[in-house]
Amino acid sequence: xxxxxxxxxxxxxxxxxxxxxxxxxxxxxxxxxxxxxxxxxxxxxxxxxxxxxxxxxxxxxxxxxxxxxxxxxxxxxxxxxxxxxxxxxxxxxxxxxxxxxxxxxxxxxxxxxxxxxxxxxxxxxxxxxxxxxxxxxxxxxxxxxxxxxxxxxxxxxxxxxxxxxxxxxxxxxxxxxxxxxxxxxxxxxxxxxxxxxxxxxxxxxxxxxxxxxxxxxxxxxxxxxxxxxxxxxxxxxxxxxxxxxxxxxxxxxxxxxxxxxxxxxxxxxxxxxxxxxxxxxxxxxxxxxxxxxxxxxxxxxxxx
Amino acid sequence: xxxxxxxxxxxxxxxxxxxxxxxxxxxxxxxxxxxxxxxxxxxxxxxxxxxxxxxxxxxxxxxxxxxxxxxxxxxxxxxxxxxxxxxxxxxxxxxxxxxxxxxxxxxxxxxxxxxxxxxxxxxxxxxxxxxxxxxxxxxxxxxxxxxxxxxxxxxxxxxxxxxxxxxxxxxxxxxxxxxxxxxxxxxxxxxxxxxxxxxxxxxxxxxxxxxxxxxxxxxxxxxxxxxxxxxxxxxxxxxxxxxxxxxxx
Lengths: 304, 249
Hints:
The complex is a heterodimer of chains A (304) and B (249).
Chain A: E1 2-4, E2 11-13, H1 14-31, H2 36-45, H3 50-74, H4 80-107, H5 110-141, E3 160-163, E4 168-171, H6 173-189, H7 194-204, H8 209-234, H9 240-263, H10 266-289, E5 296-300
Antiparallel strand pairs in A: 1-2, 3-4
Helix pairs in contact in A: 1-9, 2-3, 3-8, 3-9, 4-6, 4-8, 5-10, 6-7, 7-8
Chain B: H1 2-12, E1 18-24, E2 28-31, E3 38-48, E4 58-65, E5 68-79, E6 82-95, E7 98-102, H2 106-109, H3 112-118, H4 122-125, H5 133-149, E8 153-156, E9 161-163, E10 167-174, E11 181-191, E12 194-207, H6 209-220, H7 222-248
Parallel strand pairs in B: 2-12, 7-8
Antiparallel strand pairs in B: 1-3, 3-10, 4-7, 4-11, 5-6, 9-10, 11-12
């Protein structure tokens, strides 16, 4: 069944979009990532104009994250206090990111920079997570108890705060910085930033994996909601019909995903996420390195 | 006397012996939610004040053109081991859609000079003032190649049926991803490559119903539109969660 999208001005198969939404929704619920880093390139691939794909994806992430976070709230695996601190940083970052995005757009190389960002961030994070979770799995297999987290420099910073749900007593400076960085990336790359947020919370802030997912989703709702509004009011690129098609699949997928996620051991969850991140990274790197079949590309004039 | 004859001839020549009268199966296209492309039947006839002239046969060219916009064509080059956008060319006006249907192979229907004057072929319909055709030629070729692969540009040579050098008809397919705007259909009749008459008519391509409502809302009330999108997202997220909880417990 073909549906004409009013803002994107293309006609697409409704079932294809429902399926894509559902698939990415499952991953979203399992790992606490918005799924934008997977969905945005997929939308490019089926012919949605990039500007519309990025903006609409932000809107869809709001829905899947909200659906996911409700399931986590019931299981009490959301650290609202930590989420709020991250969120404050996130909103500052998103506002900065939109400015940066416009500057890059004027320079005409925004596409390349976004791709490079993806490859570098996905590569580093995916690689680190993969090695770490593999080690953790090997350790549990060999029967040794997992080593307790050591205190590092992060624990010596001022403005300490108690995060009871996470069982942490740390300074609010690291979460704020993480929030700002993720906010910037969310605005530039059209993603919720979960794939950066989740590892940052685990490895930099030392939060327990089970709490991380819900907390990440909680803050993603607000950052992507803010991004949606910015795109809708400045670029007019949010396609609500596309968003509805994606999110119907997405919210259902997210519910299934959270249930799968709750059943899997934390290490396996992390190694799966790492594998997926590396896969996307590899695909993007491949596209940059191999000669494209079409060397030319069209764009609206004026560096848009 | 000879001068007078020449003068008379000069005045006599522009009087058209053959005129084109044309019609479309529809002069407006409505883009609805389930819009899946459209096919328009284009037909017409040649009106004559004199008998059928001898000489080369009558040929018909029909073009359909979508609204134009400036466009940037970028070429990727290998820099530091990766493929990046390097050179770029800006075209002043490129139609969003362009179709050319003819009654015979291109070389038989129109002369190059006539093509240049009336901008009939796709290549001529793309207006790139100041662009060096030598240098920019590959960019224009790329533009046409990409647009053709999207079914946005098409050459349909030999698809116009002409009967008795008087009646003609063809169908032109409009793709599903059509841009809104005023489309123009042009009819040319030629003999021996010379254009005898031109007729122009417009096709109104508009979004209707929900498509139109959402599009207008997004442009005129972007904040309300954005908030509506968010509200839908939040509601859908909550609904899915509620439904699943109901199923579980």
